[in-house]
Every structure is written in C-alpha cells, then in structure tokens.
C-alpha cells in the first residue's frame, strides 16, 4: 500500500488523476446532450446554436482567463477555481425545459467546462518539460477518462435513458472539482534574484504573447482549428446523426469511445516516435486524416466502417493537438504559457462555433452529406500548414516536436 501511495505522490501521478476527469463531463454530453435536447422538441438547427453559443463566450474568455492564470502564484489555483464553478452551474439545468433557458444555462455550463483543458494542458506540458518526464503519458489519462465517459457511462443510455443526462453530467463535474485539490504545484519554485543568477544590467521583463504572433506561427494554429471544428461537430451531432440513420443505441457510446481509445494509444506511444516528427508536420497529418475521415462520413457508411473512421480521431485530433501544444511550448515563454494556449483555444472555439451553426443548418437540408463542409475546411488547413513551412522551415526533427 505504501508503494502505491508513494507512486501517487508524484506530481505526474496527481496531474494524471485530474486529467482523467477533464473530459468526463464532455464525454457524457457527447452521448446524451443531442438526444436530450431532441426529447425537449429542439430541432437540429437550434441544437447547433446551443452548442455554438458557448464557443462565442470562450472566444472572449480564454485568453483573459489564461492571462490571469499565468499571473497567479501557480496555475493550480486557477484550475481549482474553474473546476468548482463548472460543478455548480449545471444544477440550473434541472429547472430548464425550453429553448431559451437551456441555451443560456448550457452556454454558462459549457463555457466553464471549456476553460479547464487549455490551462491544465499548458501547466502539465511545462511541468513535464522541467522534470524531464513524458507529457503524453500524463495527457493520455484525459483521453482514457473520455473513453470511460463515452463508452462506459454513455453505455447507460439504453438503461437509464437520456433523461439522466443532467445528473450524470453534474456527477462528473463534482468528481473533477474534488480531485482538483490533489493537484501539485506546476511552476518551479521562485528563484531569488541574486548577483549569481541575474546578469548585470538585465531587467526582469514579462514576455508578451503578441511578439510571437507572426504569420508562420499563427497559420498552423488556424489549420488545427479548422480540422478540430469538425471534431467538435462529431461531439455535438455524431450520436444524433447515427441515431437518425438507424445505428442501434448500444453502438453510440462505443463509437464515441473507440475514437478516444485510438487517441490514448497514440499518446502512450508518443515517446517512442514523437522525436521523429516535427510539430507542424503533426498538424499536417491531422488535416490529412480529417480530410479522409470526414469525407467518407459524408456518405453515411455502415456501422463497421464507422468504427474504423472513429479510430482516425487519434490522428485528426490526438496528433494535431499534440502538435499544437508542443509547437506553442517551444515557441513561447513560460510567463504566457496559459495565455498562448488560450489563444490557440480561442481559434479552436471560433472555428467550432462557426462550424456548429453552419453544420446544424446543413444537417437539416443534407443529412450526413453536411460532412462535405469538413472536406473543405481540412483542405484549407493543409494549405495553411504548407504555407507556414515554406515561410519558416522546421528545425532539426531529431528533437521532440520542435517546429
């Protein structure tokens, strides 16, 4: 028992435990929300708006919250505070049954939930870099949590029905808030300024994020935002579309869960091959995988093909997200780590918001053929990465995800 406790006492283990809960609420929403909304008589175009409005709020909040988190004594404080807020707000969903009320409360719920990932990931990648440990092995537990939420808890859909959505969602946010208090400190201990460690005449300055926002830096972030917008569509409309296409309900949770299984395998295996691929090439692979995955989905393939296509999520999201996190970590300063990740997340949310609103309308008219919109966005993403690589060629790819 003491050896187990000692292993859990490492910063990486405690961060992994919290990471396991990061996407549990979102996983429950991926399976239940669309069907729960449909039960309340809300059509697909309004479901798109309900999923898109939080993105607008996150556009405004992500960088602000990231800047506040960067200036705190440690990112841990911000993570715990946001986790607590995100556990309280969804209780109001018990009292909502019509469109405008659900729109408002779900916006606040999803916004508070969406502020968690960029800060915990920015904090974790800095901590693991400093400790010489594996970010992928820590971050993979977030994906495993999503698998449990989508395939495990989502499997309860056929047992308890979509009416249990609010209770299950709240349970996941409460668990996450409680485990937040076990998080370690992420920043290195503050070093006293002495003549030995401060060069003569070198003022201590805070590096500003805007100094990094050159076109070659921003384009790959835009590319991932474009492909990830379609990943967001899968979370909001995937289960609903498959349900309408006649896919049995007992397949819905596993279909969403297997996407995360592939992502987790990639993250655990990352250290074996990550040093051979530069960050922008990882984003390029994500765009190519997304192009194939979403184009095939437009043809409403059978359930057997859906499982294969869902495994490509490991590349259309997992590899691309790793590319973005490492790209940002290697080209920005620790003093604006969460703000920089918040900027990338702002792009993600903006693209997702536009895609969700558009996709909801397209689904009403074209059904699964709406995924051809993703064919276009992934193609634009490929062009963005290629332009960035031409503007600033990558560094030596023998080091992990350097460029």
TrEMBL record:
The chain crosses the membrane at residues 20-41, 47-65, 77-96, 102-120, 140-160, 166-183, 216-239, 251-270, 282-300, 306-331, 343-363, 369-389. Residues 32-355 form the Major facilitator superfamily associated domain. The keyword Kinase does not apply. It is a multi-pass membrane protein. Keywords: Cell inner membrane, Cell membrane, Membrane, Transmembrane, Transmembrane helix, Transport. SUPFAM superfamilies: MFS general substrate transporter. It is found in: Cell inner membrane. InterPro entries: HcaT-like, MFS_assoc_dom, MFS_trans_sf. The keyword DNA repair does not apply. GO terms for cellular component: plasma membrane. One of its GO terms (molecular function) is lactose binding. Its main location: membrane. This is Major facilitator superfamily associated domain-containing protein. It comes from Devosia riboflavina.
